[in-house]
Amino acid sequence: MGFSTTAIHAGNEPDAATGAVSVPIYQTSTYAQEALGKHKGFEYARTQNPTRSALEKNIAALEGAKYGFAFASGMAAIDAVLRLVKAGDHVILGDNTYGGTFRLFDKVLRDYGIEFSLVDTSDIHALEAAFLPNTKMVFVETPTNPVMTVTDLAAVSEVSHAHGARVVCDNTFMSPYFQRPIEHGVDIVVHSTTKYLNGHSDSVGGFAALNDETDAERIGFIQNSVGAILSPFDSFLVLRGTKTLAVRMKAHDENGRAVAAFLAEHPAIVKVYYPGLASHPQHELAKRQQSGFGGMVSFETGSFDNAKKVLENVKVCTLGESLGGVETLISHPATMTHASVPAEKRDKLGITDGLVRISVGIEDVEDIIQDLDQALK
Ligand code: P1T
Asked: Residue whose CA is closest, atom 2 of ligand 1?
């Protein structure tokens, strides 16, 4: 079955009780049991909820995974997956990730005895050199937030598996429409469903998808034990969002390419980060690994003052954190999404005070370009 057919039908069977075509919001905390130990498979809504189950089937199918788990946020999903490792284990973390992912390692997991090394996973030799006898997991984002570095998922999976480590990929920027990490050998895919999967900037959620039965059982156990579940209403919203994922991603991609091309030609801009540009260092890899380039574009304005002028003069684009919604959002990574990364690390990665990030929406692209043009002037 094709992607759009799966997106519209997987998990979306008509409601058994009423025939409702849209999966209802099962807004209940518990379920009546016929007798002690006799029930319909639903006991308590932290453990099972039909709206959440439908979404879990849906996104798992889109990622080509057997198992899926929906969480209260992207960070809750990442935290649940990280609970597969134990005190004394070592994790290799991509040196550029969403600031909150770095913060989880740096300010939370460190206190629980999880060792980690930051590595540029786009450099396979650097990755190979970073393995320790206790390395149990390699966590990558590709393309990275916000400098859009692309990591070769097949190569990373091969090397990591040879060292007995699982590979986790944060697929938030691409969504399963443009990139399916499991097909490249990745073990676990995580998402902030807050972004493209929901797509309308009106829900916060997260997801983990995987094939390994033992790890899936453990993540399900963690989901229920820790309790950071996605609510029935948010599950409904994300389930509605994925039905139009394909059409939205095509539009984000078309507009993203046009905005990146415009910025690349603009005399006031020092550098544009977009894997769809032939000048991007991993353009060929991105073409192989992804079926599109999407709507995330970052650019270097040269200084904080320049960035501030752009950010404060846009009218169609909205200044704000987050990404992946239908509306264009513009942000300043150094003071917003990546403020928790130390300044010297940020500078090394290119997350300078002059860097601006755009989540290109699906408005008429001429309006977005005209808006950026007047703000740059
Ligand atoms: O915000 P939350 O749903 O918890 O997701 C965290 C997260 C995880 N992974 C990636 C790649 C992300 O970009 C995010 C959240 N990012 C933003 C809020 C942002 O503006 O970049």
From this structure: 74
